[in-house]
Amino acid sequence: MAASCSPLRRGLQVFAVSQWVFSFLGLGRQPRDPGPLKHAPPPPAQVCLVALIFVLLSRAWTLGVLYLVWLYWDRDKARAGGRRSAWVRDWAIWRHFRDYFPISLVRTAPLDPSQNYLFGFHPHGVLAVGAFSNFCTEATGFSRLFPGLRPHLLMLPCWFHLPLFRDYIMSSGLVSSTKASAAYLLSRPEGGQVAVLVVGGALEALEAKPGGLSLRIRKQKGFIKLALEQGASLVPVFSFGENELFRQCPNPRGSRLRRAQEALQPLLSVALPLFYGRLGLLLPFRAPVHTVVGAAIPVQRCPRPSRAQVDALHALYVERLTQLFEEHKARYGVPADRHLVLT
Known about the structure:
It is a single chain. By secondary structure, the chain is of the alpha/beta class. It has one domain (3-342). It is 37% helix and 14% strand. The protein has a seven-stranded mixed beta sheet, with helices on both faces. The model is unreliable at 29-36 and 38-45 (pLDDT under 50).
């Protein structure tokens, strides 16, 4: 135990988290967010794009040209299952990342590897740290807890237009969040595929504050319809502690800042949370995150589900999610009188 608190280990943990934050806020600035399962145009030039231009203007320009040719040929890969790398997912840096908080993955029921699953992840938090650590790395033992399953975290399509960065994030199991991409995974006849969707989307990040239990879910029904169309079992996932990792500038509903954030969201398609972490920087606070995976909700395939079918399954999903939260909240420090706020 003492070794885990040594200056060297703590330094490695800080480095692991810092490089991850830089990767997503530096290498790939927050792109336009059209919401889950929709398409978005490419984002503006980023660090990786500048690096590629530098190569094209250097003596190694032939390598840049070859990469562009390959990039065009490979352009649809993020919508067709991506390109996972077991080596990247098992990097030691992700274990230091996990230990910084720390983060744990909790299984409440086994899942049949012959089936496909759509995981609904809640809450979004500011940067969906738990979703990345648990489903894009092996640091918390996903393959050991759910043998035979391959998780794929759905991410905005525009990130996959960034040269070089797209290849890096695909290696962890990230794929495009277009409906076609999710359908590709959930329609695999051999089973064993898991599409992980952060249901609340970017707007839910505005509610990501310590102690916050607000979820955007009442109107989020696209993932329910998709599950019905593909016959994929639904699995609610609640990540306790996700909202404790950052602080936000006060933005209560009706405030000037909140009105500005909500007004800009349709124009920029991003929620723009003004957040900070330790020492006023972007380094998250050290707070434990426990991601609890619920039992599967079997779904009968219906290629053209009616609104009534979607509404009924949505109501059942919300009921199971709420039950999952209530059954585990005491274990993870949520007071008995606190309940989910569904909007």
